[in-house]
Amino acid sequence: MDAPEPDTPFAAVTAQTSKYGRIYQAYLDKSTPFKAYRWAGTATLFVAFVLRILFAQGWYIVAYSLGIYLLNLFLAFLSPKFDPSLEADEGMEDGNAGGLPTKEEDEFKPFVRRLPEFKFWYSTTKAITVGFLCSWFEVFNLPVFWPVLVVYWLILFSLTMRRQIQHMIKYRYVPFTVGKTRYPGVAK
Fold first, then answer.
1. Helix or strand holding residue 157 (H, E)
2. Given this model, what pLDDT does residue 85 score?
3. At a CB cut-off of 8 Å and minimum separation 6, what does 132 contact?
4. Exposed/middle/buried for residue 128 (C-beta within 10 Å: 0-12, 13-18, 19+)
5. Is the model's pLDDT at 135 over the cut of 60?
6. Domain boundaries defined on the chain
């Protein structure tokens, strides 16, 4: 298929779309180092969504769907990119799949997330925004008995987190870093 002529309306729309896409990407790139501000904005948006659901007394299926999606994102954020259980199945003879090196010849593998923090934040923010927008349209206000959804989500959360924590303990990895150790009285 040939490229559209430069003077067609389609080409003008494409040019404008790509221009706004570049501007949007530039703002995303500029926001990358401001982790606390990004998450504070997302938390504010989430509080607005929760207040919308509580005051409107509806759209529980939207809230439930958002909760399931956020749980899925959180599990991907906690999971290592390369699953040590698969490496153990492939024949790691010392049983130290993905853990810290125990011998001098062992290779240290740092924790690499399946879902990096920025993509986790970006996906979370987009999902909350979509959920908030859906809560303004009556077509998404399906009649459901919301306590069942809450109980089901809590059961799902506890079972998946239990499985994830057992996986973390079994393969000895911690998905969180608390930063560099600082000793009192030592100059930088």
1. helix 146-170
2. 72
3. 45, 48, 49, 52
4. buried
5. yes
6. 9-79+114-170
Q: What are phi and psi of 80, to 5 degrees?
A: -75, 150
User: Please, are residues 120 and 77 in contact by the beta-carbon 8 Å criterion?
Assistant: yes
CA distance 166 to 171: 9
CA dist 31 and 25 (Å) reads 10
SS3 category, 141: coil
Q: What is the mean pLDDT of residues 81-108?
A: 60
For position 160, what pLDDT does the model report? Answer: 94
Tokens of 173: 């990895």
Q: What is the CA radius of gyration of the chain?
A: 23
pTM value > 0.90: no
Place of tokens 């409107």: 56
Residue 140 near residue 65, CB atoms below 8 Å: no
